[in-house]
């Protein structure tokens, strides 16, 4: 057919009319393609959840508020409903404030990707919070299992409880020594909440006055500040190329390296301690791992090292024959902390080559260090901020505080240590914790998920690759779920005298990527809060005004700084 047409054109049509036909055909083809494109776009728009229009390339960025988009998203949800869409830069954003829809979507395995934004890219896909696919799946399984093994459970007499209790007792001592001097809860709590995660990860705690702690803390807060100042770049890559912003990115990278260095030093010390028990401690190989972290190792050195031994695991071959099993750190089954679990895992994988690796061909040291970074960033600020908010609630709601103290007096005895053994007999205390998490929404926008396939929900299409933001704060303040949402009513979380958590309440997220540290956070909140209430009365210093419930919105919703004067209940 094509040949016949061509022969006809060749024989009967002159050259000039041939050119005309060709240009006509290309115009028709281009128009058809354009119409097809428009049709697809319109179809997409028709099936997309409703939402505001944006301008080309920038989308709705020009209308986005400068601080956190939280209240802006909430007002859009009022207008467009509990699933709406908008463009930010070139990213398609879907905001969901229907608990039922969120549960349905986030339970799907194809909901577990994360946005590939320039800032997320700085972490190279390592760790747990921003990793994806097979690496995330295996790390998540591994960490969930090890959290349990280490006794991070809400029941009584679990091994990990004692570490939190140690920090609670240290905190109480510090408050006792403060002698009526007003204390900023955010500051006094800092080292103790931090130490809980340090113990879990590497059996380590910072002592009072340790300059490294101040430095480390400073780096974390600076990191958050820096991220906040360039967050528009998440949606508009060229924004980060602006001269001022490039300097910020450079500082973010330096900051990340400093934080990693802190963990890497611990990894190094632990490795050194463990490997020193081997007869042939190989300094080169050890240094290779450490240098590799910063891509400092000259590539040409690699083959030499590979020819030697490039994996710490292979050092097992060097174990002295006369080493007793209990001296071998990798076969010693007394599990101490996550670092121990990781090193043991690396060793086991080496022994069994066929078993699938939890590291999925990723650099093991980078992965372990990033998991440590992630657990700090995900677990420290959230827990500390929550406790700070609960104390504010106790100032604002004296009747609730009174009931908490009388329950504690009855179940535990005023001035006695509260432990997890008492938890089930103190449902009102836990209800107060939940009501605070609801009223202030510590993580107001959860964490963004990305869908790997097209989804249909409520008759809408959510195209694959969309960034899905759970509007947890909107749900928490929705009167359909929580009547009189402005009021602080712990009773919402009680049913027949027991703690009751409705399935539309999701302060720790929902679905496959639900908070990994939920149990740990609940242990911490209960033990810190209940003990502070059972040992002290506290009040604002004279003349200070009541802290507002409108804090500052970043990844977390943090209270503005305030101070408290503590008075011991039992002398
Ligand atoms: C009151 C305290 C806390 C709150 C309100 C909170 C809340 C959340 C939320 C909303 C998410 C996002 C879930 C999602 O992606 O859908 C999350 C994820 C996460 N949280 Fe928490 N969290 C708290 C404490 C902790 C603690 C103490 C740890 C660990 C030590 C922790 C570790 C994590 C991790 C690792 C993730 C990412 C999980 C993944 O991507 O698979 N969190 N958390």
Describe, in plain words, how this protein is organized in 3D.
- 50% of the residues lie in helices and 7% in strands.
- The protein starts with a helix and ends with a strand.
- The chain is α+β, with helices and mostly antiparallel strands and 571 residues long.
- A hairpin with a 3-residue loop joins strand 10 (552-553) and strand 11.
- It has 2 domains: 2-115, no CATH class; 133-278 and 323-568, Cytochrome P450 (Cytochrome p450), CATH 1.10.630.
- Protoporphyrin IX containing FE (HEM) binds at residues 128-129, 140, 197, 374-375, 378-379, 382-383, 386, 442-443, 446-447, 507-509, 513-517, 520-521.
Helix content: 40-55%
What is the strand content?
A: 5-15%
What is the assigned CATH homologous superfamily of the largest domain?
Answer: Cytochrome P450
Q: Say which molecules are bound, naming each kind only once.
A: protoporphyrin IX containing FE
Main sheet summary = 4 strands, mixed
How large is the count of helical segments?
18
Overall mean pLDDT score? Answer: 84
- Provide the structure class: alpha+beta
GO molecular function, one term: steroid hydroxylase activity
Cofactor: heme
InterPro entries: Cyt_P450, Cyt_P450_CS, Cyt_P450_E_grp-I, Cyt_P450_sf, Cytochrome_P450_fam2
Transmembrane segments: 21-40
């Amino acid at each position: 057919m094509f040949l016949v047409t061509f022969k006809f054109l060749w024989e009967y049509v002159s050259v000039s009319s041939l050119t005309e036909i060709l240009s006509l055909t290309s115009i028709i083809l281009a128009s058809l393609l354009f119409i097809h494109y428009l049709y697809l776009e319109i179809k997409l728009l028709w099936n997309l959840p409703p939402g505001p229009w944006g301008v080309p390339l920038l989308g709705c960025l020009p209308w986005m508020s400068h601080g956190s988009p939280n209240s802006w998203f909430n007002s859009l949800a009022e207008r467009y409903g509990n699933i709406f869409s908008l463009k930010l830069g070139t990213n398609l954003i879907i905001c969901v404030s229907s608990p039922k829809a969120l549960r349905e979507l986030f339970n799907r395995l194809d909901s577990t990707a994360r946005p590939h934004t320039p800032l997320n890219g700085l972490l190279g896909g390592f760790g747990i919070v921003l990793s994806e696919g097979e690496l995330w799946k295996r790390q998540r399984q591994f960490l969930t299992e090890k959290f349990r093994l280490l006794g991070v459970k809400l029941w009584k007499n679990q091994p990990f409880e004692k570490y939190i209790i140690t920090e609670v007792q240290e905190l109480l001592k510090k408050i006792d020594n403060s002698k009526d001097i007003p204390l900023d809860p955010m500051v006094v709590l800092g080292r103790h909440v931090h130490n809980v995660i340090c113990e879990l990860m590497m059996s380590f705690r910072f002592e009072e006055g340790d300059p490294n702690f101040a430095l480390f803390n400073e780096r974390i807060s600076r990191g958050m500040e820096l991220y906040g100042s360039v967050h528009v770049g998440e949606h508009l890559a060229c924004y980060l190329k602006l001269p001022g912003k490039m300097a910020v990115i450079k500082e973010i990278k330096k900051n990340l390296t400093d934080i990693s260095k802190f963990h890497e030093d611990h990894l190094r010390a632990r490795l050194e301690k463990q490997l020193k028990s081997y007869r042939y401690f190989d300094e080169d190989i050890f240094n290779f791992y450490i240098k590799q972290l910063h891509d400092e190792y000259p590539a040409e050195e690699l083959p030499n090292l590979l020819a030697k031994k490039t994996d710490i695991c292979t050092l097992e071959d060097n174990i002295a024959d006369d080493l007793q099993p209990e001296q071998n750190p990798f076969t010693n089954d007394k599990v101490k902390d996550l670092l121990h679990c990781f090193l043991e895992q690396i060793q086991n994988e080496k022994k069994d080559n066929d078993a699938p690796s939890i590291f999925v061909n990723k650099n093991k040291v980078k992965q372990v260090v990033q998991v440590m970074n992630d657990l700090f960033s995900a677990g420290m600020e959230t827990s500390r901020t929550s406790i700070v908010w609960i104390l504010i609630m106790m100032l604002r709601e004296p009747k609730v505080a009174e009931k908490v103290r009388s329950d504690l007096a009855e179940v535990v005895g005023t001035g006695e240590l509260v432990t997890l053994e008492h938890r089930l007999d103190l449902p009102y205390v836990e209800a107060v914790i939940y009501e605070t998490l609801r009223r202030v929404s510590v993580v107001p926008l959860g964490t963004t998920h990305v869908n790997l396939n097209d989804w249909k929900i409520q008759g809408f299409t959510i195209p694959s690759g969309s960034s899905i933001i759970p509007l947890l704060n909107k749900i928490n303040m929705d009167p359909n779920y929580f009547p009189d949402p402005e009021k602080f009513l712990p009773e919402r979380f009680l049913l027949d005298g027991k703690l009751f958590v409705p399935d539309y309440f999701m302060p720790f997220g929902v679905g496959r990527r639900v908070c990994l540290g939920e149990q740990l956070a609940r242990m911490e909140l209960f033990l810190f809060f209940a003990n502070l209430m059972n040992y002290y009365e506290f009040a604002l210093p004279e003349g200070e005004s009541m802290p507002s419930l409108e804090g500052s919105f970043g990844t977390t919703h943090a209270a503005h700084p305030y101070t408290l004067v503590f008075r011991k209940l039992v002398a």
